[in-house]
Amino acid sequence: MSEAAPAPTAPAAPAGPVPLREIFLTFLLIGATSFGGGVVAYLRNSLVRAKKWLDEDQFLEALEISQTLPGLNATNMSVIVGDRLRGPWGSVAAFLGMTLPGAAMMTALGVMYALHKDHAVVSSVLVGVGAAAVGLLASVTIQVGRKQLEHVLDLSIVAATVLMISVFHISMPIVLLVLGPIAVFIYRPHPKRIHLRRRHHGHDIKPAD
Amino acid sequence: MDSSPPYLSILGVFALLSVLAVGGGAAVLPETKALTVTHFHWLADDEFRDIYGLGQLSPGPNMLMVIAIGYWVAGYPGAALAFFGFFLPSSFICFGASRLWNRFEGSQWRLAIQRGMAPIVVGLMAAGTVSVARVAIEGWITAALALAVFGILLARKINPAYLVAVGGVVGYFFLV
Question: What are the boundaries of each domain within chain B?
Answer without folding.
Answer: 7-136, 138-176
